[in-house]
Specification:
With 433 residues, the chain is mainly alpha-helical. The protein has 18 helices and 4 strands. It is globular and about 70 Å long.
C-alpha cells in the first residue's frame, strides 16, 4: 500500500476499469472505455492497445480475461460508496489498496505453510523475505495484476493442500482457490494439477471434492472463452500475443528458440534474475534436502520447476516492461517454504548469518522498485523488447539503475490517459491533451 500511487504497467488498465464498471453495468467489454486510450476528438485507434482484443462477437474485451475485474468489483464498489471514485487517480488508489490487502493475506498463508515444515523463527525470516524482498512487494502489491489475485489464491490453495489433504473441507477450499488462481492467470494450471495430485495421493474422496470445487470457476472461464473466442482453451492473451510476438521477435511463434538462455536469465540475469533481485532464495536449494520424505511439498516443488521451464519457453520470457522476475512470480510461495526449510537445514551459524545480508539486499531492491515507479522506463531507454540482449548487460543493468535511487524515478508515469469516472461511466478528463 506504500509508495507513490503510480501504475506499474498497462496489464492492469482493463482490470481496474472493468472492476469499476462491472457491478453497475454487468458489462465485461471495453467498448465504452475508449477514453483511457483515445484522445478527445480523435478516432479510436484500430488496432487498440495490446491490453484490448476484439472478440468473435465484435466486442472489445480485456486481453487478460474477466476474472480479476469481476473479483475486484465488490471492493471497488464499496470503496466508491464510502470514499468516492471520481478520477483515474481515485480508482488507482482503490485498487492499490486492494492489492496491498491481497498481498498481506497471501503473506499470512505463506507463513502458515512454512510452519508446517520449519521452525517458527525460520518461518518468520522466510516469510519476511516473501513479503518485503520479493516481487510480491515490487510487482504484485503495486496494482491489480493477474499475479496479484493468482498469488492470493495460490497461497490459500497451497496451505489447504499441505495442511489437510485428507480433510474434505480443505480439499474443497483447495480446489476452489487453485481454480480461481488458474482463472486469474492460466499458467497456474500447473499448480492446479499439482494440488489435485497432492489431494489424490492422500484420499480419493477428497480428490473428488477438490475436482467438483475446481470445476465451477473453470467452467465459467471456459464458457467466457468459448463465447468470445470460439474455444474454451483460447484465451485473449494467446490471441494478442501473436501480434506482440511479431513486434518483439519478428515471428508469429510464441515459442522461444533459446529456452536455455531464458532459463539462465530468469535465474541470474542482472535485470530479471530471481537470485539477483531476491538472493535470499538461494536458501531454497538447502531446503531441497530431505524433500523426498515430503511427497506433497515435493509435488509442488516439481510444479514450480516446470513453471520455470514453461516461462523459459515463452517468446518474451522477460515479461515486457517490468522491474523484476514477473513471469515466475507465482513460484515464490513454494520457494519461500523451501527457504524456511533451508534455514533450519543450515547447521553452521555462519551459514545462517549469511541469510541476513542476502535478505537485506533483497529488501533494498524491492522497496526501491516499489517507491521509484519511473525506474520501469529503463526498459524503454533502449527498447528491451527488441533488444533482449540488454538483460545480460551487467554495467547497464536494471539492478544498477534501481540502486542509483534517482530522484526523477520517484515521479509518476501513467499507463493510460487520465479520465473522469461518473455514474459508472468512463469519460474524457478535461485536461487530457
Amino acid at each position: 500500500m506504500l509508495g507513490p500511487s503510480a501504475p506499474q504497467g498497462g496489464d492492469t488498465v482493463p482490470n481496474r476499469y472493468l472492476a469499476y464498471r462491472f457491478l453497475c453495468s454487468l458489462d465485461l467489454t471495453l467498448d465504452e472505455l475508449y477514453p483511457i486510450w483515445t484522445r478527445p476528438g480523435h478516432q479510436t485507434p484500430d488496432p487498440p492497445p495490446y491490453y484490448v482484443v476484439r472478440s468473435e462477437t465484435s466486442h472489445l474485451v480485456s486481453t487478460f480475461g474477466p476474472t480479476v475485474p469481476v473479483l475486484a468489483s465488490p471492493f471497488v464498489w464499496l470503496y466508491d460508496k464510502v470514499l468516492g471514485i471520481e478520477t483515474s487517480s481515485d480508482l488507482l488508489r482503490a485498487t492499490r489498496f486492494l492489492s496491498g490487502i491481497l498481498c498481506g493475506f497471501a503473506t499470512l498463508f505463506v507463513f502458515a505453510s512454512c510452519l508446517l515444515f520449519a521452525s517458527r523463527i525460520a518461518s518468520y525470516l522466510a516469510t519476511f523475505g516473501f513479503a518485503f524482498a520479493s516481487a510480491c512487494l515490487s510487482i504484485a502489491s503495486r496494482g491489480l495484476w493477474q499475479h496479484t489475485f493468482a498469488l492470493f489464491f495460490l497461497t490459500i490453495g497451497i496451505y489447504a493442500c499441505l495442511s489437510g489433504p485428507k480433510k474434505e473441507v480443505y480439499a474443497i477450499i483447495a480446489g476452489l482457490a487453485m481454480s480461481l488462481a488458474f482463472a486469474s492467470r492460466p499458467t497456474c494450471a500447473l499448480f492446479l494439477a499439482a494440488g489435485f495430485l497432492v489431494i489424490l495421493f492422500s484420499s480419493r474422496i477428497s480428490a473428488f471434492y477438490f475436482a467438483i470445487a475446481a470445476f465451477f470457476p473453470c467452467a465459467l472461464l471456459f464458457a467466457y472463452n468459448t463465447w468470445h473466442f470460439g474455444s474454451p482453451f483460447m484465451f485473449g492473451q494467446t490471441i494478442a500475443s501473436h501480434d506482440v510476438a511479431i513486434f518483439k521477435t519478428k515471428s508469429h511463434s510464441l515459442i522461444n528458440k533459446e529456452p536455455w538462455l531464458a532459463f539462465l536469465g530468469l535465474l541470474f540475469s542482472p535485470s530479471r534474475g530471481i537470485f539477483i533481485f531476491s538472493p535470499h532464495f538461494f536458501f531454497s536449494f538447502k531446503g531441497l534436502s530431505g524433500l523426498c520424505g515430503q511427497k506433497s511439498l515435493l509435488t509442488f516443488s516439481l510444479a514450480s520447476l516446470v513453471y520455470f521451464l514453461l516461462a523459459s519457453f515463452w517468446f518474451d520470457w522477460w515479461g515486457g516492461a517490468t522491474v523484476s522476475y514477473r513471469q515466475i512470480l507465482e513460484t515464490t510461495p513454494i520457494l519461500t517454504i523451501l527457504v524456511a526449510r533451508g534455514i533450519d537445514n543450515t547447521r553452521s551459524h555462519l551459514g545462517k548469518l549469511l541469510f541476513v545480508p542476502l535478505l537485506s539486499f533483497g529488501i533494498l531492491v524491492a522497496s526501491l522498485s516499489a517507491t521509484h515507479p519511473r525506474v520501469v522506463l529503463w526498459n524503454e531507454e533502449m527498447q528491451v523488447d527488441t533488444h533482449p540482449e540488454r538483460l545480460f548487460d551487467i554495467s547497464q543493468s536494471l539492478l544498477f539503475r534501481i540502486l542509483e535511487k534517482r530522484t526523477e524515478d520517484r515521479a509518476i508515469v501513467w499507463d493510460s490517459f487520465k479520465v473522469r469516472l461518473q455514474n459508472c461511466k468512463v469519460l474524457h478528463h478535461p485536461k487530457t491533451p
